[in-house]
Design goal:
5 helices, Rossmann fold, 9 strands
Amino acid sequence: MKLIVTPGRLFQQDPRAISSDLAGLTILVAEDEFLLAAQIEDELRSASCSVLGPCTSVAQALQTSRAQRFDLALLDINLRGEMIYPVIDELRSRRVPFVLLSGYSAVNLPERLRDMPRVAKPHDPAMLLREMRRALGKI
């Protein structure tokens, strides 16, 4: 068992339970920081997910999202100085779940995105998997 501490909460979670319900999913990753993208890819592969990307620009993320099938997207808010909003709008119109990755606080996001699943950078791997599960409606 793994002990997970989140603000206001302390609980035990079996890491196999977290990854077992994500196994086999394909995740689109849009992240322009190489080391962070590599870390996320490792975490997703450890959870038995397939990875598309990483996409390092908004244009690449849009192109990949239109050309490939995937179950969920992990989106850095700012890719090379360009905001990811066009990708978010497209995914929302297609009802594709996503999790935002950002160093921005919620108040710095457009109001329409403030309640979206979001993980602060630098991220905690357990929190990332938890938010992915939340976005997919698994918790």
